[in-house]
Specification:
It contains 9 helices and 15 strands. The chain folds into 2 domains: about 120 residues, HAD superfamily/HAD-like (Rossmann fold); about 100 residues, Rossmann fold. It starts with 11 loop residues before the first strand and ends with a helix. Helix 3 packs parallel to helix 4, helix 5 packs across helix 6 and helix 7 packs across helix 8. With about 270 residues, the chain is of the alpha/beta class. The chain is about 35% helix and about 20% strand. The protein has a 6-stranded parallel β-sheet. Strand 10 and strand 11 form a beta hairpin. It holds the Pfam family Hydrolase_6. Keywords: Carbohydrate metabolism, Hydrolase, Magnesium, Metal-binding. Its cofactor is Mg(2+).
């Protein structure tokens, strides 16, 4: 494992949210202290999430209820990254959207029109209740020529009752029916990381990515040229790390162990 001291000082931090800062609605011990340490150090940071259901305002309220105070401007979602991608690719376009407020608000804010009539794109995001009618409409629009975009490839999402089907699973259903695979914008696409870096005017060589999943957070950080820290408080267990052909820069038990690194890696 490469020594951190061989790298340039860290000027900015990207961190995943679920499994790193919170579990469901509860803060993971050390999360509040980590954010406080970042704010005290003056380092730029963004909290990233593949969840496209919520707006940054919603997520700020959720985090605040858990005792973690993060400004809206420091939250970057796959919905925002998807909206930015669409604005870059086809400004002022149209889309048929399967998703909730986080996605529809992001698209409205870039000037997209949401429509069922010959849209430029079908955009699939996260929702608590996927409608068979909406999925059918998406299949027909894609068959008729609409481009297929999805916010993230996560096959399942967490709930108190157990896993729920998520964007990746519904995308697979639509692909099976149409023969058309979507372009996924969120992690592990390094595009999500680069859009986050651009958001805070950060450079990959001086940025660290913190995550709890080897197959999304760590690989997307690696491919975007960032150092990475894997926390073992979420999806990937320590015994699973060696199964992957790549490794994080550091492995720690939880976000509490990253707090001292904020000053040590400066």
């Amino acid at each position: 494992m490469s020594r951190v001291t061989e790298h340039k000082p860290v000027e900015s931090w990207l961190t995943d949210m679920d499994g790193v800062l919170v579990h469901e609605e509860r803060a993971i011990p050390g999360a509040g202290e980590f954010i406080t340490a970042l704010q005290s150090s003056g380092k730029k940071f963004l909290v990233l999430t593949n969840n496209s259901i919520f707006t940054p305002r919603d997520l700020r309220a959720r985090l605040l209820a858990a005792g973690i105070d993060i400004p809206e401007t420091a939250i970057w979602t796959s919905a925002l990254a998807t909206a930015q991608f669409l604005d870059d690719q086809r400004p002022g376009g149209t889309a048929y959207v399967i998703g909730e407020a986080g996605l529809t608000t992001a698209l409205h804010e870039i000037g997209y029109v949401l429509t069922e009539r010959e849209p430029d794109y079908v955009v699939l995001g996260e929702t608590r209740t996927y409608s068979f009618e909406a999925i059918t409409k998406a299949i027909r629009l894609i068959t008729d020529g609409a481009r297929f975009l999805a916010t993230n490839p996560d096959p399942t999402g967490p709930s108190q009752e157990g896993p729920l089907p998520a964007t990746g699973s519904v995308a697979a259903l639509i692909t099976r029916a149409t023969g058309v695979a979507p372009y996924f914008v969120g992690k592990p696409n390094p595009l999500m990381m680069r859009s986050a870096l651009n958001r805070i005017e950060a450079h990959s060589e001086t940025t660290v990515m913190i995550g709890d999943r080897m197959d999304t957070d760590i690989i997307s950080g690696l491919e975007a040229g960032l150092r990475s820290v894997l926390v073992l408080s979420g999806s990937t267990g320590e015994h699973e790390v060696d199964r992957f052909p790549y490794r994080p820069t550091r492995i720690v038990e939880s976000i509490a162990d990253v707090v001292p690194l904020v000053s040590a890696m400066s």
